[in-house]
Amino acid sequence: MSDAPAAVAELEGRFGADAFTVQETRSGFPTLWTSRDNLPAFLKFLKTEVPRPFGTLYDLTAIDERFRQKRDGQPESDFTVLYHLLSYERNEDLCIKVPLSDGDAALPTATGLWPSANWYEREVWDMFGVRFDGHPALRRILMPLTWEGHPLRKEHPARATEMGPFQLPDERQEREQEALRFRPEDWGMKRTREGTDFMFLNVGPQHPGTHGVIRIILQLDGEEIVDCLPEIGFHHRGAEKMGERQSWHSFIPYTDRIDYLGGVMNNLAYVLSVEQLVGMDIPDRAQVIRVMMCELFRIASHLVWYGTFAQDVGSLSAVFYTFNDRERIFDIVQAVCGGRMHPSWFRIGGVAHDLPKGWQAMVRDFVNYMPDRLAEYDKIVMQNRIFKARTQGIGAYTAEEAIDWGVTGPGLRACGYEWDFRKKRPYSGYDQFDFDVPIARKGDCYDRALVRVEEIRQSLRIIDQCLKNMPAGHYKSDHPLATPPRKERTMHDIETLINHFLSVSWGPVIPAGESFVGIEATKGNNGYRLVSDGGTIPYRVRIRTPSFAHMQMIPLMSRGVMVPDLLAILGSIDFVLADIDR
Amino acid sequence: MTLIYYLAAAVAVISTAMVITRSNAVHALLYMIVSLLSLALIFFTLGAPFVAALEVIIYAGAIVVLFVFVIMMLNLGAEATARERRWLQPKAWIGPAILTAILFAEFLVVVATEPAATGAPAGVGVKRVGAALYGRYVLGVELAAMLLLAGLVGAFHLGRRVPSGDEEDES
Amino acid sequence: MTDVLLQVAVILGVLNAPLILAALLIWLERRFLALLQDRYGPNRVGPLGLGIVLADMIKIFTKEDWVPPFADRAVFTLAPAVIVITGLMSVAVIPITETIGVTDLNIGLLFFLAMSSMGVYSVVLAGWASNNKYALLGGLRASAQMVSYEVFMGLSLMGVVLMAGSFSLRDIVAAQQDIWFIVPQFLGFVIFFIAGLAETHRLPFDLPEAEAELVAGFHSEYSGMKFGMFFVGEYVGVTVIAAMIVTLFFGGWMGPVLPGIVWFGLKLLFFILIFILLRAALPRPRFDQLMAFGWKVLLPLSLLNLVVTAGALLLWKA
Questions:
Q1: ipTM
Q2: By residue range, what is the domain housing residue A86?
């Protein structure tokens, strides 16, 4: 983010100063408004023509602006579609917004520039009803095909009680089931080739190999996958919609359930984004506690992945070992947070409590215990010859493809592209820690595994440093918007008491504005884009999740491989269904 | 032993008839397995256990499995069964059946008029089979081996994918 | 008269033993696997959790035996019976001690191979009759895998046959009086062991039922006692392969001090535990890798073993 205006200057040089306006946000990178007519040329310029281009379409979403009050200086708009571009070479973000009117909500597609735009545009269509002309298959992605309305529009009801009782008479059930029937023609797939019939196989929504409710439709020639089509949305709970009716504080537990293996890691992305809106400084102790808990959860998540990945290629035992180790992490988490998988423990301005007595011993035990176990897993999993035969050379992609498709995290680093948000854009004081960013070369299933295994070791290093250098001080900020506010002084002066009362009963009032923070989460880059209208609840919560982008790549990775390889690929990208569907 | 022989022979005849008349290919193959097993039993009762075992291992255990394999690959559905049933009209089988019946009648006449072969054959052990195959009939065995090898090479050649067609396939 | 009664008792005993053994193996496998995987396994019902055997039986006998409406009913019912029948028929030729054993067929080994090749039908027909795509894929894998590995299985045993000069299993055990065949026929043993794993489609070669890929493969649609038959059939298969290993390579009932039946039982248990251990330890190769390994490694090796054994025997006898 060092030379943020460079891209703006380049755009000005190419299109003139009238082509766009700049919006002030808290996110730390430029947000530009342009018109629908300018958009294709803008995107093309940024993707292909500008030196050191914006290779990744990091996020594409929309905002229903119709009920928003504090939009001073922004162009007239009912629906704003937002393109969040990322350039790794510049280490720079750029946000482009396009205003659309309700009656004519349509845009040209960006799928020609970024293949990853496909699902993002479908999601915007599904959620907001914004059409994308020229999109290859613009249909609902998260909601059932039979759904009426577009959920993230403000007029769409947010809870079931606003919608009338749910009934499922026979004919409706039949209609719903018929809508789920897969017709290859709808997706441009052929049923036969040179006289051989393809077999179409539904993997999921209920299947032991998919780790959750997802449906992958395979077009098979024998056991060879000719093409495949992931279908998501079975786990969609409308977390973004829920965000629009929860107070800033009470949304924290919902974030735990996004990447449900990441625990407080999700809290971190959210509270950092809220803190960015407020401009709050966090005490050092709170920062280090956060880092330590996040890294513990990174290990916990990677351990689940390690075991289940081994199980996906048929190795039965590793999963029991890694889950036992994960249990040790949960013991620590339980002692610190009270909760286990979803502790919802971070707060706006810090964390919920101070660390308990004796936490050092627990963490130290774990840090000393884990390396031997990892060495053992190396022997039974990573060095096993059958395991290697099953994963090496399978599901490989290049760094260019990864950037094109919006891959982040270990999946990107496995292609030899050294990029870790903790290093490149240190947040929460990660720049104070000494750790390496493991990379691998080939970008296949095995290399993705290698990177993750090494990440566990690096996380242990970080935790060890937290243990040895835990600063003294407060676990929560003094800032008046820290929630719940620190209570020590409430009984002494009335100002603090009133502030505390309001903050606890209504929740904090966050100043109007827009923010975005992305962090290196367990599965890749997780980011929260928050729009505040100056109230006690967010106006819009956008959750950018890594698994969504990764899942979209499945067809690219699995064409031409066999059915068992698909399971190896699914295991290696380490996705969580809730992280895809939100 | 004679009773077992006749029982097995009856099973063989009936199951073979079922093979012909089943319209479902897998059911037909199941009867074929039964037929082969009963043949194996006949060999056994005739004192040729080695041939009996080979009958089961090679014919029933390997070749018919490949038939089933192919039928599974083709994934024949109900329509294939219906088509078989249509084809199995009397006018389709009456001609060959009459001709076969004539041959069978001739065979009965010959068996009835010729003097019966004397006694049950002595048991033929593995050693004797081996000695015969690699002694007296070694040329035949070698020729058969050559033929099988040629078949193997031919099958490999036919089964190979033609690379030129692959570009289209990616569509 | 008592001779006949004794004979009948032995036959019934030997044929029932694998069924009881199979039930016990369920317990053994679950406890041993649990031990290897840092967990307890079934330990609630009865001493050492042995009551789980009874509980499992009650469960499987009383569960609804559902035949899917889209299945081929006759074949669907036939398939699970085949695996148990062929398994038990194989047991018939295994000599447990000098005196105990159902029959001493002069082509015992061939009979075993024939039964094991018939066992393929169980899996293949189950896969076909279920009329389910996963089951079909499982059936296809099973037919290719088992037909191929039968070849190596048969060939790997020819060395033993050459050395013993007989297909009779009892003769083969007797021929190991001086030295167990594991020593001169080590290669044959390794190939037979691998092929035996593939024949019983146990992990690491459980491709026909690979859970993560094919749900439950060929028996996805089975429930109740029909599923129970596959379950029992699998354990009978494991027992038979282990018993064959003991008979062919480890001197059958022979051993010092202890009576033959104890030796046979101990050796059998050892190899069954090895089977379970492998299940805990190894991942599953891909289908084409398994086939390539068979045809490109095991076939040449087993042929080499055969040729070298034959040559050595000729030299030695000359």
A1: 0.82
A2: 5-133
